[in-house]
């Protein structure tokens, strides 16, 4: 696969000039922290424009809970800044090592989608720099079409220079975590959909425990983790990544051979069998950012790496969820990491043209890359999702087809009209509408 050239650092106030030099070839692509699992932030043969130097907080209204920051500010920096004043970023993915611009470009969600939706619902406005019109302010009322295209727009509508964000009140900086052991997929889905009983939640599924040959079986070893904020505890210090006391410990002490099927089968069984006990209290940051307890985990899957498959299946299509999980449990090709989240509640409308949202179930899978065999497995998973009216998540993709992208996001033609002519990516060249047969 082609790789991008070394990223060029964008300097504050010089974004427009840098973008103006992007004509010809494969164009340019803005890049944040480089945490995307696939190729949405890769521009092979073209320029990569890093937002790392765009790291200033521009405005911070502690009374209203509104903050404006440049695109290169990381989620961890935001959390550490606002938590002490009693606020929190509404939607936090599993790592705090992502940038604000990247979060907007992916329209990220967290473990609380049923309550907050995706980040795009909380973006009040942004400054975008385009090669054709220069700097432009966008919001729900100012250039609203371009604004909607930019939320979840994968960095293709222009360079996001700054973002104005509405925060949520932080009731406390610790959570009480309920750990519920289940043995059926029906039970897991029912527990996740009890939105009023928790603030943050997810379910872990042991793919090795699923019997794919039993078409009507929904038996599986599963754990549901439901976290509720403990009101009034602390001064916000536990909401940011500074609360993580073991950052980097997992990867430093985890040998690569652990992420093999034989060993993961044993690890999963042990994780499921661990005592549940009563609800445990822990720092909110350690629950929100589990990926940050590891460091440089790419090596854990071996030299060929891994494929992520993240999909959403709409409410009312539970048979498709079961079928997807059975297919992901095929002997010799099991997903090593399987995580479910409940999407929905009152947040059903997509803020962006390519937003990954809606009432239903989010399913995240992780596979060791074994070449064609793995890609055939992923194609089969795509078909299950799309036939059920679901979506594939671009931010974690490295191989979906143009046809699958168009089925996931029917408004792709409308989105394409807003793509900056100087910007491109490996992902966009693969899925752009003209590539649809």
Automatic annotation (TrEMBL):
Coiled coil: none annotated. Residues 2-170 form the FAD-binding PCMH-type domain. PROSITE patterns: FAD_PCMH (PS51387). SUPFAM superfamilies: FAD-binding/transporter-associated domain-like. Its EC number is 1.-.-.-. The keyword Oxidoreductase applies. GO terms for molecular function: D-arabinono-1,4-lactone oxidase activity; FAD binding. Keywords: Oxidoreductase. The keyword 4Fe-4S does not apply. Pfam families: FAD_binding_4. Residues 15-45 are annotated as: Disordered. PANTHER family: D-ARABINONO-1,4-LACTONE OXIDASE (PTHR43762:SF1), L-GULONOLACTONE OXIDASE (PTHR43762). This is Putative decaprenylphosphoryl-beta-D-ribose oxidase.
